[in-house]
């Protein structure tokens, strides 16, 4: 079932075109990612879906409703990039207040427990860590028992461990039966979480596929890096059909190729009693697809 349908969305601010042509659908039960470089139109697209922006053209439906339908306030939970609460409001006060906005809210105490906030209910918002604020933001987005959760740049500013903890939370949201629309500039995050992704650049969708599909469209190339236990001649490996090129970086060898490259290289080394020390296997990633499609790196970009 299609939960969100965006068809030829357009939005401009004065002379600046933020979104020129964005179309995609989100199916029930998906974690659907929106990726793109800074200024690509990601946040404008999401805010239009959430009913916070009025598009200049195109159509959007969420659960077969117009984004401006008041009923969607109960059915869609939103966590925005710049969500803030009063510094002196406690986490418990925020949860209790938000639950009062809904006729059939989730049990906010149970929700706090599930999201690891049970011990922080008396802590003021200003004293919460970045990860705890994000957990609270997620809880507030879920407190109305929504069918859809919109999460915008959820893990920006978090340390690596807090980011991975938040990824677990997003997966648990999907496990609750909630469809998730996730905006992110972290390629590792999208590759880990998303069932499908739309890559937006310059206000238009330039690619729409699964993360694996986008990666496969870039290259099937593999790279193996290792330090041989004894010196070897490059021709030992360049003669293999799976190997396209061998490069040297000091004492380290980089072998580039396709197919069953790892097996071919390690079997050849073993036959010559050579040990591959510090062996690393690298394949194309969503980062590579991003760079190929947009011409720039995603690292450090913020929406």
Structural key phrases:
29% strand, four-stranded antiparallel sheet, disordered C terminus, six-stranded mixed sheet
Structure write-up:
With 303 residues, the protein is α/β, with parallel strands linked by helices. The chain is built from 11 helices and 13 strands. The protein has helices at residues 42-49, 72-75, 91-99, 108-114, 130-142, 160-175, 187-193, 211-218, 235-238, 261-271, 286-294, and strands at residues 2-13, 16-27, 31-35, 57-62, 76-79, 148-152, 179-183, 196-201, 204-209, 222-228, 243-249, 252-257, 276-283. The strands form 3 sheets. Strands 5-6-7-3-8-9 form a 6-stranded mixed β-sheet, sandwiched between helices. Strands 11-12-10-13 form a 4-stranded antiparallel β-sheet, covered by helices on one side. A 3-stranded antiparallel β-sheet has the order 2-1-4, covered by helices on one side. Helix 5 packs parallel to helix 6 (160-175) and helix 8 (211-218) crosses helix 11. The longest helix is centred in the middle third of the chain and has 16 residues, at 160-175. The two termini are 29 Å apart.
């Amino acid at each position: 079932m299609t939960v969100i349908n965006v068809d030829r969305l357009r939005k401009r601010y004065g002379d600046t075109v933020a979104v020129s042509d964005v179309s995609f659908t989100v199916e029930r039960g998906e974690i659907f990612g929106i990726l793109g470089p800074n200024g690509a139109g990601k946040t404008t697209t999401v805010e239009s879906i959430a009913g916070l922006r009025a598009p200049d053209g195109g159509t959007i439906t969420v659960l077969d409703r117009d984004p401006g339908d008041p009923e969607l306030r109960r059915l869609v939970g939103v966590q925005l990039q710049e969500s803030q609460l009063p510094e002196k409001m406690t986490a418990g006060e925020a949860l209790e207040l938000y639950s009062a906005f809904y006729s059939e809210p989730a049990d906010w105490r149970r929700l706090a427990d599930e999201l690891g906030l049970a011990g922080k209910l008396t802590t003021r918002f200003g004293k919460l860590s970045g990860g705890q604020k994000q957990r609270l933001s997620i809880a507030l987005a879920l407190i109305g028992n929504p069918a859809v959760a919109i999460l915008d740049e959820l893990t920006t500013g978090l340390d690596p461990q807090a980011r991975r903890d938040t990824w677990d939370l997003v997966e648990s949201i999907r496990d609750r039966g909630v469809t998730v629309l996730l905006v992110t500039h972290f390629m590792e995050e999208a590759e880990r979480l998303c069932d499908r992704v739309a890559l937006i650049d310059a206000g238009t969708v330039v690619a729409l596929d699964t993360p694996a599909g986008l990666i496969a469209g870039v290259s099937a190339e593999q790279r193996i890096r290792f330090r041989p236990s004894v010196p070897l001649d490059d021709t030992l490996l360049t003669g293999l059909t799976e190997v396209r090129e061998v490069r040297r970086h000091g004492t380290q060898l980089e072998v580039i190729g396709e197919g069953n490259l790892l097996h071919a290289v390690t079997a050849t080394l073993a036959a010559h009693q050579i040990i591959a020390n510090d062996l690393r296997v690298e394949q194309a990633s969503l980062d590579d697809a991003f760079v190929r499609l947009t011409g720039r790196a995603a690292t450090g970009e913020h929406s």
